[in-house]
Design goal:
The complex is a heterodimer of chains A (333) and B (517). In chain A, a hairpin with a 2-residue loop joins β2 and β3. Chain A has one domain: ABC transporter involved in vitamin B12 uptake, BtuC. In chain A, 73% of the residues lie in helices and 3% in strands. Chain A contains 14 helices and 4 strands. The radius of gyration of chain A is 21 Å and the shape is globular. Chain A has 333 residues and is mainly alpha-helical. Chain B folds into 3 domains: 160 residues, P-loop containing nucleotide triphosphate hydrolases (Rossmann fold, 3-Layer(aba) Sandwich); 159 residues, P-loop containing nucleotide triphosphate hydrolases (Rossmann fold); 70 residues, no CATH class. Helix content of chain B is 32%, strand content 24%. Chain B has 18 helices and 22 strands. In chain B, the strands form 5 sheets. Chain B has a 6-stranded mixed sheet with strand order 6-9-10-3-11-12, with helices on both faces. In chain B, strands 18-19-20-15-21-22 form a 6-stranded mixed sheet, with helices on both faces. The longest helix of chain B has 16 residues. The chains are: A mainly alpha (333), B alpha/beta (517).
């Protein structure tokens, strides 16, 4: 055991271990496999299609990374997205008569979605922090509530955006700048901001500390409940953002909207190397995780090796593998 | 300082049980990667002998114990059981041979009952079903043998520290332990609880069990051990019958130099200004009606038995627990609802539980160091360079010894963790610091460093409250000692009256009664 001081030799830079490289290697392998199997795989159209479709889960996964890093969990995001989508459509359809199918209604709809997301996240957070109920139970409950609410709002059917509005909103999903569509741009911006927040702000550091040992954080003058609440509010807001990108794509919402999004988002976070019990998180890993899940589906669709119906099974295998790799990375440390 | 007159492990040709003892190490080296942490360690545990293993943190005691009990294998050298070379495949194999290690942190399933723990993994069965009655009877017999009155059906979670220790020992005996190795068994026990443990150690010795234990409390080493082995920097530097070694000699062998006075002399006088004034501070369920003044530059000791409400009262003061009463800081009444609010008023609390509440063990030194005062490093993005500089300063000022700057806090030895914790709390530049058990479970050399740091703090005008179960520490450090009993301040002692005797009497409620002292 040597004393560390200014004069001590610089610590050797170790090569990043499998724990860090794993998700990237998996992503590269998928790209190589995809390219080898189908010449269309690397085409501009296919790549942007995969990215745009991954954007919804991706935006949510960025928020989920903070929640999981802080040792928490949110199962309600899929239902929440469906509920917000329904609400957004109702608000816009309702305002159509007074405001016309213009920018005003679209801004109103976007505002409603973001506020609803914030509120939904805040409700989860308050129930968990102030009322001290297990996150699993609270979000299992709200998951059922939102799913049921959207079914009720749609009266068991589908809520559809007014046709004129749908046309007016379509550029939000299909448009973009420099040939890159808006969902991809928003996803990229959210991911960059998230990565910055995780690595370079107190919020990110506090999330990791709380996830590792909330008692230590509490004894270190960290306002643990406030940070936890913030992670849920942030996630809710990002669910709102994802919904804003999602609604223009189909222009409708039903009880089938956003089904299993929570599992895909959690899976992406775990595949990316964030530890499920908290304490360590990386946003870029979650982005890689989302892309891995998206590419698997895409490759299965493009090739006829394996039935696309087995998509879920392959994703499941990847998730379990990722966790096994994580554990070995730890044991070796 | 090598002491060749001490008993060394017998040569391989020695053979017989009397020479090699029940369990022995012979010329054991152990490396972790490129770092060799044990060099040529030889050690003999005799049946019916209590063997104390002492040394500073990082001297290699834990590694030695783990090799003895099969958790680690030696890189070279041999482990001898009854004179025969033993190659334990793991701790299970060692336990099967009657060699049991009791960890400092108990290895009990908290939600299971005592008897379920005692028989965990080797449950008695009648056919496919558990034979609960037999297990209960056997557990009761084991506990009776230890004169321990714990109910076999009680949940371990509900037991006090020493009772858990007894359950661990009962569990070891249930595995027919012939060698019992205990890692700092008294670290979390009060003096009285330790006495109970020592009585049981005596019984086990009489029954012919070979016992090895580690402790930082040299007085208890002196009292209960038959033989002392001192380690330093991974080597055995002395191994002698206890009666031939004074406590001073032990301490010097551990540190490798003569120890000057443990407690530095006070150089700066206590300030005039009142830093903290408490009136009727009550922490419901734990402490009632605490009133005292704390001056700038003063070191105030807070003594009392464990459970007297010392820790809870101070946790209440800093907002970790709900409290009532008046708190004045620097002459102004303040409301402290959270540790954050306390810190904003320059008041911080350093926990007694450095592993559970003090440091995030799986985070690095830098992240731990700056956690408490992180806003000073955020503008608004975290300034990593400033953090690194703070770490460099802390390593220098607090003499933190770590394998590397990138090491995780959990890899540091106890003493270095404590220094890191101290550095972390002081980074918030407090005016009032409450330090709970500043030196629990750390070696004497580091203790001395920490005492100096506390002393320097007071000299800078910081007001310090030291909570400690070690009376010499409270007496040596503090200008004034408040003694708590059953949630109240039982009395205050200062100057000449500051003796162990008066403090113990106050703590036990014997004040005013005559004793044959």
């Amino acid at each position: 055991m040597s004393s560390v001081s200014d004069t001590a030799p610089k610590p050797q830079r170790r090569l990043p271990d499998l724990h860090v490289l794993g998700p990237i290697l998996a992503l590269v392998a998928l790209i190589v496999i995809g390219a080898a199997m189908n010449s269309n795989f690397l085409s501009y159209a296919n790549i942007t299609n995969v990215l745009a479709r991954s954007a919804f889960i991706g935006i949510i996964a960025v928020g989920m990374t903070f929640v999981i890093t802080a040792g928490e969990l949110d199962l309600s995001v899929g239902s929440m997205a469906a509920f917000i989508a329904g609400l957004m459509i109702l608000v816009m359809n309702g305002a159509l008569a007074g405001m016309g199918a213009g920018l005003g209604v679209i801004v109103l709809g976007i505002g409603a979605a973001l506020v609803a997301g914030l509120a939904a996240g805040w409700i989860n957070g308050v129930l968990i922090t102030t009322m001290r109920i297990e996150a699993f139970i609270v979000t299992l409950g709200t998951m059922g509530i939102y799913r049921s609410l959207v079914t009720w709002l749609a009266d068991g059917g589908t809520l559809s955006l007014d046709f004129g509005l749908r046309t007016a909103m379509q550029p939000l999903y299909y448009g973009g700048i420099l040939g890159i569509s808006w969902p991809i741009i928003v996803f990229a911006v959210v991911a960059l901001l998230g990565e910055g927040a995780m690595r370079m702000t107190r919020f990110g550091r506090y999330c990791a500390a709380i996830g590792s040992n909330d008692q230590v954080a509490r004894y270190s003058s960290v306002d643990v409940n406030r940070v936890r609440l913030l992670t849920y509010v942030l996630l809710g807001l990002l669910v709102g953002v994802a919904t804003v990108m999602y609604v223009p794509r189909l222009g409708s919402a039903s009880s089938a909207t956003g089904v299993l999004w929570e599992l895909e988002a959690i899976a992406a976070v775990i595949i990316g190397g964030t530890t499920l019990k908290g304490g360590f998180g990386r946003v870029w890993g979650s982005v890689v995780g989302v892309l891995i899940l998206g590419l698997i589906g895409n490759i299965l669709n493009l090739t006829d090796w394996v039935s696309p119906y087995l998509n879920g099974a392959i994703q499941g295998v990847i998730i379990v593998l990722a966790v096994i790799l994580q554990r070995e990375g730890k044991a070796g440390a | 300082m090598n002491d060749d007159s001490g008993q060394r492990a017998a040569s391989p040709r020695g053979g017989g049980q009397g020479v090699t003892g029940r369990l022995a190490l012979s010329g054991v080296d152990r490396s972790f990667g490129p770092v060799e942490v044990l060099h040529d360690v030889s050690l003999v545990l005799q049946a019916g002998e209590v063997h104390a293993l002492i040394g500073e943190n990082g001297a290699g005691k834990s590694t030695t114990m783990k090799i003895l009990s099969g958790y680690l294998r030696p890189s070279s050298g041999r482990v001898l059981l009854e004179g025969q070379e033993a190659r334990f495949e793991g701790s299970d194999a060692a336990e099967a041979q009657g060699v049991v290690l009791i960890h400092q942190e108990f290895n009990l399933a908290e939600d299971l009952t005592v008897e379920e723990n005692v028989f965990l993994g080797r449950e008695l069965r009648r056919g496919p079903l558990l034979d609960k009655r037999a297990m209960r009877t056997r557990t009761r017999a084991l506990l009776e043998r230890l004169e321990c009155r714990v109910d076999p059906g009680a949940r371990v979670r509900d037991l006090a520290g020493p009772d858990k220790q007894m359950v661990e020992i009962a569990k070891a005996l249930g595995r027919e332990a012939r060698v019992l190795i205990m890692d700092e068994p008294t670290a979390v026990l009060t003096g009285r609880e330790a006495e109970v443990l020592f009585a049981q150690v005596d019984r086990l010795r009489a029954e012919g069990v070979a016992i090895l234990f580690t402790s930082h409390k040299l007085d208890e080493v002196k009292r209960i051990s038959d033989r002392v082995t001192v380690m330093r920097d991974g080597r055995v530097v002395a191994s002698r019958p206890t009666e031939e070694m004074s406590e001073d000699a032990m301490a010097e062998a551990m540190v490798g130099r003569a120890l000057s006075d443990l407690f530095p002399a006070r150089s700066a006088p206590v300030g005039e200004g009142v830093a903290l004034r408490l009136r009727d501070l009550t922490v419901p369920g734990h402490a009632r009606g605490l009133s005292f003044d704390l001056h700038e530059g003063e070191v105030l000791g807070l003594a009392g038995l464990i459970g007297s409400g010392r820790t809870e009262a101070m946790e209440g003061l800093v907002g970790l627990r709900p409290h009532e009463g008046t708190i004045e800081i620097g002459g102004h009444a303040v409301r402290i609802a959270s540790p954050r609010a306390a810190q904003a008023h320059g008041l911080v609390y350093l926990t007694e539980d450095r592993k559970g509440r003090g440091l995030v063990l799986n985070m690095g030194l830098r992240e731990n160091l700056t956690l408490q005062a992180l806003e000073d490093f955020a503008h608004p993005f975290l300034d990593r360079r400033a953090e690194a500089e703070a770490l460099t300063r802390a390593i220098r000022d607090f003499d933190i010894r770590a394998p590397s700057r990138d090491a995780k806090a959990g890899t540091l030895s106890g003493g270095n963790q404590q220094k890191l914790l101290l550095a972390k709390v002081l980074l918030a530049k407090p005016r009032i610091v409450i330090i709970d058990e500043p030196t629990r479970g750390i070696d004497i050399g580091t203790k001395q460093q920490i005492y100096r740091l506390i002393h320097d703090l007071a000299a800078e005008g910081v007001a310090v409250i030291v909570i400690s179960s070690e009376l010499p520490e409270v007496i040596g450090l503090a200008d004034r000692v408040l003694v708590m009993r059953q949630g109240r301040i039982a009395g205050e002692v200062a100057g000449e009256a500051k003796t162990e005797d008066t403090i113990v009497r106050l703590a036990m409620g014997l004040d005013g009664k005559e004793t044959a002292a």
